[in-house]
Amino acid sequence: MSTRENSYTEAEALNLLAQLERILDLDPLIDEVGFIHPSQFATLKEEIGDSLSSEDRDHESTSFWIRDHKLGISTQILIPVYKAAKHAFISALRQYKTPGNFSGKSQDDTLAIEVMIHSKALLLLSCDFATAWNSRKLIVSNKRLLPILMDELHLSALVLSYSPKSEQAWSHRRWVINMISRNCSTLQWIIERESELVEKIAERSKMNYRAWNHRCWLVSFMTREQVLDELKKSRNWSGLHVADNSCFHYRRRLMLRNLEGFCYTQDNNSSGYFVETYQIWKEELDWNESLIKRYIGREALWLHRRFLSMYLIKHMATHLLAVSCQSKPKASVDIDIDSLMDHELCLVHSCSTTIADANFEEAQAIHSAAYMLWLTKQIPEYQGIDIQEKLRAGVGDMTRMLKRSCPDRSSLWDYLVGYHSEP
Amino acid sequence: MGELAADKHVKYIISVEKKKDSFESVVMEHLRLNGAYWGLTTLDILGKLDAVDEEDVISWILKCQDESGGFAGNIGHDPHVLYTLSAVQVLALFDKLDILDADKVSNYVAGLQNGDGSFSGDIWGEVDTRFSYIAICCLSILQRLDKINVDKAVEYIVSCKNLDGGFGCTPGGESHSGQIFCCVGALAIAGALHHVDKDLLGWWLCERQVKSGGLNGRPEKLPDVCYSWWVLSSLIMIDRVHWINKDKLVKFILDCQDMENGGISDRPDDAVDVFHTYFGVAGLSLLEYPGLKPIDPAYALPVDVVNRIFFSKK
């Protein structure tokens, strides 16, 4: 393959670049791009019954494939087109940036258009070519028009369609949204669309840190209604992707954001607010428990439970105490830590007793015991209830089991035994 | 279990520079300076830095410097702190920091600190705790930490701490071993490790070790050699490295070697690259594998290089 790649002349490469740029210009609605091996072209053509018009035929054959706003680029031409695009982009950018190289505003605009055209082609071949993204920021920030900014979101989504982990493409979105947020009434609508985009990409690209990080970043722009709505909407997806720690972290982010709101609005009807928030927490715990019982041995589910229980005991119960003292009538929730801990012990017990050969059940036993030890290490005591004391009877069994099933961390387990046996 | 194929890895790293015919390598040219850091640090840990032409490397690096003082990933690209740190680290390897205008470089880095103490990666404003680490590490090597507000920088990093003890890119971001290394490393250099809950974070980090002995970067992910660096260095900095099984990790890294052509991959039997070769060798160095120079877990440079920076008479 490499011999053919090297055999393109400069003129051929420039011609291919011109073809690509023409395709992009003719169809601004292209929403997906991918690289196709030459052998796949034939298959694709057969599938559609080779119904290409003669005009399409000019720039198709074996280099590009376009249909229903989906663009395929042959892997055969990637290197020559990339080199041509890079060269064209660099020289256009150099001219655009050179002071005094143009005679007036119209010349400036022409050069800006050149940079935009070549940088777009380049980014469809090399997603993290930061200098190309930067040049677009430079030009767009001189215009500051909403439709132009929306075009940038579209290009970034197009790049993410072939490279869902592209750091630069995600970062470009945040820059654009920051620009929009300064003076735009449609921001809430855009934030909603962004959140949907992440979910769509997360479906194809599992455990994508960059995608979910972007979704977490969006939370600070959301209204309380949006936060609660997101919590509701993302639940179904999370229930179907129980191994994806990121989607549960997103829920944690939303829940904490909702609580931040609580802290700021203590004066106005805070007990009602708190009842609602507590309800959300309780539902999440119940839902998490049902998932733990349905999907055996999933680390992400147990980590989510660590967060839910610890936060409830350490922070919310204290908050509640403060609220219920002030509010009239008294808040209608009462967090009974004693029975909560009994419930958790029961759950852990039911998960550790079924040690079988199956790997998943062993994992379930390890995660549940580690969960309990973790919780008691974080919250040794609450409101006079000695949580460690409650556990003392079981701690020996748990650590023995962990040392047997999980000997690589035996120093940690030994450390905890020492910790728990301290007076 | 095989031994470390040190000579093969040296040959592999030198050969990477020469073959650039695949599309994958062509589209990496914008981060070539990072590649130079990975490759050259590996050579130095293996005691073979003299296998490359120092003059060539240094003159090329200087051509990557922008008039702002920052460095780009390659000639003609835009500057970014990611490449600025790599440039400084590579010059430190060659004991050539004195050819830099240290004030100019550090003014570029210091100029990227924001009001809340965070750092942008370049003039376009993306904020990430990785950039906080880079700024603090870079300025410390250049002995210009006084140019930034270190207290504010620490405050921002602490605001990115999660309830699991780990750190994310920005406040509220998910814990990730790579980000944790950056935050712990920055706090270590700034003398502010007391902000880390060592038991809590140590627990999360040691749970990254999976059955094969390898480490993953986040819960439920596959193990990857690069985390031998991110997780391991963090565990060392917070003094909890005894919570993992080091022998099994050594074996996992050695199993990821290409015994024929050199280089280390992310997992056994995958294709090798210079990034994973560096993290594999650096991880083995942290694990005190024989024949390797010790590496500093915070500065990510050989210990003798770090000592030369801070203790040599000027």
Structural features, described:
The complex is a heterodimer of chains A (423) and B (314). With 423 residues, chain A is mainly alpha-helical. Chain A has two domains: 1-159, no CATH class; 265-423, no CATH class. Helix content of chain A is 73%, strand content 4%. Chain A has helices at 2-6, 10-26, 38-47, 54-59, 78-97, 105-123, 130-143, 146-162, 167-182, 187-204, 209-218, 224-240, 245-264, 270-294, 299-326, 337-352, 359-378, 387-405, 410-421; strands at residues 32-36, 64-67, 70-74, 381-382, 385-386. Chain A has a three-stranded mixed sheet. In chain A, α8 (146-162) runs antiparallel to α9. The termini of chain A are far apart. Residues 53-60 of chain A have low confidence and may be disordered. By secondary structure, chain B is mainly alpha-helical. Chain B has one domain (6-311): Glycosyltransferase (Alpha/alpha barrel). The model of chain B has no long low-confidence stretch (mean pLDDT 96). At the A-B interface, α1, α5, α7, α9 and α11 of A face α10 of B. Chain A: GO terms for molecular function: CAAX-protein geranylgeranyltransferase activity; protein farnesyltransferase activity. Chain A: Belongs to the protein prenyltransferase subunit alpha family.
